[in-house]
């Protein structure tokens, strides 16, 4: 095992409301990546959390007549932490920006920048979107229509704008244009996919203005240490969660071990914050820049970006309650191309559940266990002489594993799952063609029957390992079914060993379990 720890993050989500499957998507995909790297035997650290400050959260609390701290405390406990259980996330830490460790780290960081001249005091006059907590340049301001008629809206995301004039502190972001462009060129993988990279490079090429980093008209935030009348602008403290959660300004050894992050998973709506402001802040502080910012697309419902404010937000519970967390994780990993927008529908989830999980994988596992029970008293038979058909299965598992590994390195979990699923399809095809139930009728073919069932069970063993990052619960049952405990805990099996054939000892009990994915009656 190398000394490096692979460090994965999600954005920290605003606690103005309950989570929806857009948030669940980012966290699920980060989780699949995390678990895959763990399955490789790497040390991994997976961070997620919530963004509690800013006007959006404050206004929501006020509208509900509660103190903002009370508002966020309630939502975090009732909604945000339980969501992680709902989607079966294996995060190592959960950061809240109202925590002391964050406040201390944020103040230390900006004090450092204030001390080294990266910050100055000035007057801000311009447009602000509370909805996306973003300053919007004059070029991106347009007249609103429909419900927004009579207001200005942001050309970036359509959110309503407010004009503000405040005395604020500024970060000399404008000074970093060339340094950022040089960095992007020297690190072509820093922003992915290419569409996000192109957007960022062209934005920075047009020039950067200095960034207001403090607010002085409300006080829900972290105080500026050198001026009691100011709090930090929510984004420039929120971004720091990635370092304050791992000991920045407090536990240098821990910080050194984990920083820089290997991948920040973000939605494409916030790629500019992560790929422009964030690296510039780190450059100003003399800290290393993360290896990669991966921007995924939006989940569309009825063709529109799903969001709570549009009332098309679906809570993860709504899907998990019917299909279970494994099917939820599988669906989002498989059905959407990570990096592109994608539409989802209840019908599509149901169709994939039945075709791929219940019939494709679940049936294969139960048929294999049933045949070993029937023909070999439930004990794994030896493999006799193999034919081209077995070799094709073995070769495919090797190739699919290599392809999936490459996909994970390219942050393409959908390709990784698709590669592994080729094995599910191939094994089903193999069993159909070899017809073990026919072979079983001929006593002189006992060896051949053993070979077919041994190959099928070995294929299922490989699948349990390769699919564990995606469907952790079902694969534990599958592991038990194929007698995997003889080989140790499923979490300790390595991806690289999955294609190694003949691991389960002959005679191991093969267990009939409850169906991995029982059929579900879907009403209208
Ligand atoms: N608080 C900031 C992030 C700070 S990170 C230092 C924020 N929060 S948010 O609650 O608005 O969450 C935004 C993230 O949620 C997006 O970047 C994306 O990861 C996810 N999504 C929200 N809606 C989404 C969809 N409809 N589809 C896919 N992901 C979406 O921005």
Largest sheet: 6 strands, parallel
Ligand catalogue: 5'-O-[(L-methionyl)-sulphamoyl]adenosine
User: Low-confidence parts lasting 5 or more residues at pLDDT below 50?
Assistant: none
What does the average pLDDT come to? 96
Q: How many β-strand stretches?
A: 18
**How is the largest sheet built, in terms of strand order?**
3-2-1-14-15-9
Distance between the termini: 51 Å
- State the shape: elongated
Number of DSSP helical runs: 18
| Beta fraction | 15-25%
Report helical residue fraction: 40-55%
The structural class is alpha/beta
Over all CA atoms, what is the radius of gyration?
A: 26 Å
Summed up, what is this model?
With 524 residues, the protein is an alpha/beta fold. Helix content is 47%, strand content 16%. The chain is elongated.
What does this structure look like?
The protein is α/β, with parallel strands linked by helices and 524 residues long. It contains 18 helices and 18 strands. A six-stranded parallel beta sheet has the order 3-2-1-14-15-9, with helices on both faces. A four-stranded antiparallel beta sheet has the order 5-4-8-10. Strands 11-13-12 form a three-stranded antiparallel beta sheet. Helix 11 (316-323) crosses helix 12 (325-335). The longest helix has 31 residues, at 346-376. The protein is elongated and about 90 Å long. The mean pLDDT is 96. The structure holds 5'-O-[(L-methionyl)-sulphamoyl]adenosine.
Describe the secondary structure blueprint for this structure:
Blueprint: E1 5-14, H1 21-39, E2 43-51, H2 55-63, H3 68-86, E3 93-96, H4 100-115, E4 119-129, E5 134-136, E6 141-143, E7 152-154, E8 161-171, H5 177-186, E9 191-192, H6 194-205, E10 211-212, E11 214-215, E12 223-224, E13 227-232, H7 234-238, H8 241-244, H9 252-258, E14 263-267, H10 271-285, E15 293-296, E16 299-301, E17 304-305, H11 316-323, H12 325-335, E18 342-343, H13 346-376, H14 388-409, H15 413-434, H16 436-439, H17 446-467, H18 472-481
Parallel strand pairs: 1-2, 1-14, 2-3, 9-15, 14-15, 16-18
Antiparallel strand pairs: 4-5, 4-8, 6-7, 8-10, 11-13, 12-13, 16-17
The structure holds 5'-O-[(L-methionyl)-sulphamoyl]adenosine.
């Amino acid at each position: 095992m190398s000394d490096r720890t692979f460090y994965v993050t999600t954005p920290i989500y605003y606690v103005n409301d309950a989570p929806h499957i857009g948030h669940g998507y980012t966290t699920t995909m980060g989780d699949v990546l995390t678990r895959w790297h763990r399955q490789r035997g790497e040390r991994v650290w997976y961070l997620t959390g919530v963004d509690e400050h800013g006007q959006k959260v404050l206004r929501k609390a006020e509208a509900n007549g509660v103190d903002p701290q009370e508002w966020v405390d309630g939502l975090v406990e009732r909604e945000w932490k339980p969501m992680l259980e709902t989607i079966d996330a294996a995060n190592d830490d959960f950061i809240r920006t109202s925590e002391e460790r964050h406040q201390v780290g944020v103040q230390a960081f900006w004090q450092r920048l204030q001390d080294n001249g990266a910050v100055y005091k000035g007057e801000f006059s311009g447009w602000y979107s509370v909805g996306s907590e973003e300053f919007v340049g004059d070029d991106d301001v347009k007249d609103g229509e429909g419900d927004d008629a009579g207001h200005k809206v942001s050309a970036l995301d359509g959110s309503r704008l407010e004009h503000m004039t405040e005395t604020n502190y500024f970060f000399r972001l404008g000074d970093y244009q060339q340094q950022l462009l040089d960095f992007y060129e020297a690190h072509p993988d820093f922003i992915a996919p290419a569409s996000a990279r192109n957007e960022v490079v062209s934005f920075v090429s047009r020039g950067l203005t200095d960034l207001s980093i403090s607010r002085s008209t409300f006080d829900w935030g972290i105080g500026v240490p050198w001026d009691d009348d100011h709090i930090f602008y929510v984004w420039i403290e929120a971004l720091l969660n990635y370092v304050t959660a791992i000991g920045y300004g407090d536990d240098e050894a821990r910080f050194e071990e984990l920083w820089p992050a290997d991948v920040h998973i973000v939605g494409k709506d916030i790629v500019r914050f992560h790929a422009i402001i964030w690296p510039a802040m780190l450059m100003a502080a003399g800290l290393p820049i993360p290896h990669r910012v991966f921007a995924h697309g939006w989940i569309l419902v009825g063709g529109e970006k799903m969001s709570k404010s549009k009332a098309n937000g679906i809570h993860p519970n709504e899907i998990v309650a019917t299909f279970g967390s494994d099917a939820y994780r599988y669906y989002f990993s498989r059905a959407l191309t990570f990096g592109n927008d994608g539409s989802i529908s209840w019908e599509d989830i149901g169709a994939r559940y039945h075709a791929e999980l219940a019939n494709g994988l679940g049936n294969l596992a139960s048929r294999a266990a049933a045949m070993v029970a029937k023909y070999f008293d439930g004990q794994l038979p030896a493999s006799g002489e193999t034919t081209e058909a077995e070799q094709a299965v073995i070769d495919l598992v090797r190739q699919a594993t290599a392809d999936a590994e490459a996909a994970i390195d390219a942050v393409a979990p959908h390709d990784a799952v698709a590669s592994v699923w080729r094995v599910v399809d191939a094994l089903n095809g193999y069993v159909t063609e070899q017809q073990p139930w026919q072979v079983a009728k001929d006593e002189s073919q006992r060896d051949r029957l053993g070979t077919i069932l041994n190959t099928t069970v070995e294929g299922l063993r490989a699948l349990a390992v390769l699919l564990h990052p995606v469907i952790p619960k079902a694969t534990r049952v599958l592991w038990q079914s194929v007698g995997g405990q003889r080989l140790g805990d499923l979490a300790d099996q390595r991806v690289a060993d999955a294609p190694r054939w003949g691991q389960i000892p002959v005679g191991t009990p093969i267990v009939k379990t409850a169906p991995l994915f029982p059929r579900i009656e879907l009403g209208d």
